[in-house]
Amino acid sequence: MTNRLENPLPRRLACSGCGTEFSCSLSGSCWCAEEPAKLPMPVDGGDCLCRDCLRQAAMQSVSTATP
Predict the structure, then answer these.
(1) What single-letter DSSP state applies at residue 14?
(2) Beta strand pairing status for 11-14 and 21-24?
(3) Which of 7, 19, 49, 65 could form a disulfide with 53 if both were Cys (CB 3.0 to 4.6 A apart)?
């Protein structure tokens, strides 16, 4: 018997930034793990961002952090 917790199915999400649908793998092999920028998880009730919105948020984070 296979343990369902070992290989969870990817979640289908809608980007909290633009509404684009994408999948998120909770097994640790999600596409976002390959992104060079790491942003904190949203605390305002939002969820994950799509690749484009994540990259845009990372660029904005860098530009506001630089004096």
Answers:
(1) E
(2) antiparallel
(3) 49
Q: Among residues 16, 24, 19, which one has the least CA distance to residue 43? A: 16
Please state the φ and ψ torsions of residue 48, each to the nearest 5 degrees: -65, 160
Q: Which amino acid is at 53?
A: C
- Give residue-wise pLDDT tens across range 25-59: 776 677 887 888 777 776 676 778 888 998 898 88
β-sheet bridge partners, residue 21: 14
Tell me phi and psi for residue 3, to 5 degrees: -80, 115
Q: Are the CB atoms for 21 and 13 separated by under 8 Å? A: yes
Predicted TM-score (pTM) above 0.85:
no
